[in-house]
Design goal:
The complex is a heterodimer of chains A (288) and B (369). By secondary structure, chain A is an alpha/beta fold. Helices cover 30% and strands 27% of the residues of chain A. Chain B is 55% helix and 20% strand. The chains are: A alpha/beta (288), B alpha+beta (369). Chains A and B meet through helix 1 and helix 2 of A and helix 1, helix 9 and helix 12 of B.
Chain lengths: 288, 369
C-alpha cells in the first residue's frame, strides 16, 4: 500500500576508514519525509550533513541501514538502477549551481529530460512553464557564465524539477547568494514543496530558512535529532547583522566578559580586528 | 550526453584547436619520419625499378646490387640473348663506391653503360645528353644543385676525372645516388673490360619470368638469375637492414611519442571536465553514457588531429623537396591508416581511464567545487 512517506531512512550508518582510524560520519540516523514537506538538516561543519544527503540521493552507499524511496528499498540496488532512480525520483540543487558551462539555460534545464520516459521533446511544455515560473524566459538562450548567481540557482532548480521528481535534495542552495537572492531561492523551494507536493530536503547553515521549514533536523557528531520544538536563543551577529541561534552557534568569542555569537569565522575575524567598532549590546541582543 | 560532449568540445574552439594541433604535430612527426623511410627505401631501388627488366642475371652467389660487386663474362650476354623466350637483353658494369663531386664524396651506384645498351641509361634527363662517352659522366641533378657542379665541370671517379655531360632526374638518394659513366671508363678502372656486372633480360610477352630465370640458371654456367620482383625485394631488404633501420627506429620512437601525446591530450580533455561528468552522473546518467561521452571527445580530437596532420603533411611534403632537394619523401595512405590504428585505441583508452574516475565517483565532488 502506498504511504504518504516518500523518503525513509532506517538506522543509517556511514563509516569511513577502518580500525582505530574509523570515522563515523553518519551514525544510526532514521528519518521520514512526506510528500510536500520541507525539511532542513542543520548542524556544524563536518557533522555529516553532506554525507547523509549523498546517501539519501543514492550517490553514496551506506555502510549499513536502509533507504526507502517511494516504497522501494534502494540499499541493494545496482549502479544502473540507482542512476535511473536518480533521474526520475530525485532533483538535485547544489551550492555551486553546477550548471554545464557549454549548454544554454534551456539546454541545461532539459539535460536530465533525456533520461525521462517522455524525453526532451515531451518536456518542452514543462520547460516553458518552469522558465515562466522562475522568471527565466528572457534568459533561455543565455550561457551560464552570463547569468547572475540568483539566475544560476533558479536554472539549477528548474533543472531539478524538469522530470517532476517527488524529492528535491538541496545542498546549501543559498550558500553562494546574497541575502536577497537567498531569500528568493528559499521561497521558490518552499512554493515547490507546497504547490507540487515535492519533498524538499535541504542542508543549510542559513537560520532564516527555519521559519519557512516544516521541520528542522539537527545533525551533530553523526546523530540526528528533531529541533523544531526546541527553544531558540536568537542573537544577532554583531558584524553582519544576521540572526544566529546562540544555542547551536559554534563561532563565539568573549570580549569584556560578554559573549558574542557569529554566523561565521569570517565575521569573527572581522570582529577581532576592531571589536569596539561592533559592540552595541542593546542593538544586537534580541529577546527570545 | 553525446550532445553535451560535442557541444562542450566545440564551445571552446581555441582549446579544441590547440588539442587537435598537438595531436597533429605528433602525427606529422611520425608521418615525416615514415615519409623519409619510405622515400629512401624506394630511392635505393629506383634504378632496378626503372629498368623494368623481367629477369636480372648476375654472378653466382650474388643476389643484390646494393653494397655488392658482380662480374659476368661479356659472352654470357650474347648467350642469354639467344635463349628461347628472350626478347631483349641489356647489360651494365657496376661499381658501388664514392664519387667526388664539388670536393665532396658522394656514395653512388656507378653504372657503366655501352651505346648498344642505351636502355640501361638515365630514364629522365634534366639537362645535357643521356649517353656518356669515354671521359664523360651523367650525375644527378640534385647533386649538381647541392654542389654547384654544372655541365662541363669535372668530377672524379676513383682517380679519373670525368666531365659532366648530363644531369639526370630521380637518381639522387641520401645513401646512394646513381651516376652514369661509359662502360669503357669503368671497365678500364675496374680492369674488367670484357665483363659486365648485371644483365637485364626482357622476356617475350606471356613468358613466366620465374621460369625464365630458372632456365637461365640451368643453361648458363656460374650465374644467378632472379625475377625483377625478387631482386628488388632482396635489395630493398638489404638497404633497409643497412641504413633505413635507423630511420625505422626513429619512426617507432615518433609513433610512441605521438601515442603519448594523444593519450595525454585525451586524458586531460576528460579530466578537465570531470566535474561536469560528475554532475551528469548525479543527475542520473549511467556509467555507459559517461564512457561514451569521454570516448566521443577523444575520437573527435584524434580524428581532427589526423585530418590536420593529413592537410599539413601533404602541403609540407609537397613543398619540402623544393627547399631541401636531397630529401626523398614518399607518403602512402597506409601510413595514415597505421597511425590511426595505433593512436585511436590509445586515445580511447586514455579517455576511458579518465572517465573511470568519474564512474567511481566520490559524491563530494558534486557537492563541492
Amino acid at each position: 500500500m502506498k504511504t504518504d512517506v516518500i523518503l525513509k531512512a532506517i538506522n543509517l550508518n556511514k563509516y569511513f576508514g577502518q580500525g582505530a582510524a574509523v570515522v563515523r560520519a553518519v551514525e544510526n540516523v532514521s528519518l521520514e519525509i512526506k510528500h510536500g514537506e520541507m525539511v532542513l538538516i542543520m548542524g556544524p561543519s563536518g557533522s555529516g550533513k553532506t554525507t547523509l544527503l549523498s546517501m539519501l540521493g543514492a550517490l553514496l552507499s551506506p555502510t549499513s541501514g536502509e533507504i526507502i524511496i517511494d516504497d522501494t528499498d534502494i540499499s541493494a540496488m545496482k549502479e544502473r538502477a540507482l542512476a535511473a532512480l536518480r533521474a526520475r525520483k530525485i532533483g538535485f540543487v547544489f551550492q555551486s549551481f553546477n550548471l554545464l558551462e557549454a549548454l544554454t539555460v534551456e539546454e541545461n534545464i532539459l539535460f536530465p529530460a533525456r533520461l525521462s520516459i517522455e524525453g526532451t521533446q515531451g518536456a518542452r511544455g514543462r520547460l516553458d512553464e518552469l522558465l515562466g515560473r522562475l522568471g527565466l524566459i528572457a534568459r533561455r538562450k543565455a550561457l551560464p557564465n552570463t547569468l547572475s548567481g540568483g539566475e544560476k540557482q533558479r536554472v539549477a532548480i528548474a533543472r531539478a524539477l524538469i522530470n517532476q521528481p517527488p524529492i528535491i535534495l538541496a545542498d546549501e542552495p543559498t550558500g553562494n547568494l546574497d541575502s536577497h537572492k537567498g531569500q528568493e531561492v528559499m521561497m521558490i523551494l518552499h512554493d515547490i514543496a507546497r504547490d507540487e507536493g515535492c519533498a524538499v530536503l535541504m542542508v543549510t547553515h542559513d537560520p532564516r530558512v527555519e521559519e519557512i521549514a516544516d521541520r528542522v533536523l539537527w545533525l551533530e557528531d553523526g546523530a540526528l535529532r528533531d529541533r523544531k520544538s526546541e527553544q531558540h536563543s536568537w542573537v544577532t551577529d554583531p558584524v553582519c547583522g544576521m540572526r544566529v541561534d546562540e544555542w547551536t552557534a559554534s563561532v563565539t568569542t568573549e570580549y569584556n566578559d560578554k559573549k558574542f555569537v557569529f554566523c561565521s569565522a569570517r565575521c569573527l575575524s572581522r570582529f577581532n580586528a576592531q571589536p569596539e567598532h561592533y559592540i552595541d549590546e542593546t542593538k544586537y541582543r534580541i529577546p527570545d | 550526453m553525446l550532445y553535451w560532449s560535442l557541444k562542450t568540445l566545440f564551445a571552446e574552439p581555441a582549446r579544441l584547436m590547440v588539442s587537435a594541433l598537438a595531436v597533429a604535430v605528433s602525427f606529422i612527426l611520425v608521418i615525416f619520419f615514415s615519409a623519409v623511410f619510405e622515400g629512401e627505401s624506394e630511392q635505393m631501388v629506383v634504378y632496378l625499378e626503372e629498368m623494368e627488366a623481367d629477369v636480372w642475371v648476375m654472378q653466382k652467389g650474388v643476389a643484390n646490387m646494393h653494397m655488392t660487386s658482380s662480374m659476368v663474362w661479356d659472352w654470357k650476354v650474347d648467350k642469354i640473348a639467344q635463349l628461347p623466350d628472350v626478347r631483349e637483353v641489356s647489360a651494365i658494369l657496376y661499381f658501388n663506391g664514392p664519387v667526388k663531386v664539388g670536393g665532396k664524396n658522394w656514395f653512388s651506384y656507378v653504372i657503366g653503360i655501352s651505346p648498344e645498351y642505351r636502355r640501361a641509361g638515365p630514364w629522365d634527363l634534366a639537362q645535357g645528353k643521356a649517353m656518356p662517352g669515354p671521359g664523360e659522366t651523367v650525375i644527378p641533378e640534385v647533386v649538381s644543385q647541392l654542389t654547384g657542379v654544372q655541365i662541363g665541370d669535372e668530377i672524379t671517379l676513383i682517380d679519373r676525372p670525368l666531365m659532366v655531360v648530363g644531369l639526370s632526374k630521380e637518381t639522387f638518394s641520401m645513401s646512394s645516388s646513381v651516376v652514369f659513366v661509359s662502360r669503357e671508363d669503368l671497365g678500364d678502372l675496374l680492369e674488367g673490360s670484357d665483363q659486365y656486372s648485371y644483365i637485364m633480360v626482357y622476356a617475350e610477352p606471356g613468358v613466366n619470368a620465374k621460369a625464365l630465370a630458372e632456365r637461365i640458371k640451368q643453361e648458363i654456367d656460374k650465374v644467378n638469375a632472379l625475377t625483377s620482383e625478387a631482386f628488388i625485394a632482396s635489395d630493398r631488404q638489404l638497404a633497409v637492414q643497412m641504413g633505413a633501420e635507423i630511420v625505422r627506429m626513429m619512426t617507432i620512437i615518433g609513433t610512441l611519442l605521438a601515442t603519448l601525446i594523444v593519450a595525454f591530450t585525451a586524458y586531460s580533455l576528460i579530466a578537465r571536465k570531470k566535474q561536469e561528468l560528475a554532475i551528469a552522473k548525479a543527475l542520473g546518467f549511467g556509467n555507459g553514457q559517461i564512457y561514451l561521452a569521454a570516448l566521443s571527445q577523444s575520437v573527435v580530437v584524434t580524428v581532427l588531429g589526423l585530418l590536420f596532420a593529413l592537410l599539413i603533411s601533404f602541403t609540407l611534403l609537397a613543398w619540402l623537396p623544393t627547399v631541401v632537394p636531397q630529401i626523398n619523401l614518399a607518403v602512402r595512405l597506409h601510413q595514415f591508416t597505421f597511425i590511426a590504428m595505433v593512436t585511436l585505441p590509445v586515445a580511447m583508452l586514455a579517455s576511458l581511464s579518465a572517465a573511470r574516475t568519474v564512474a567511481r565517483l566520490d559524491p563530494m565532488t558534486v557537492f563541492h567545487q
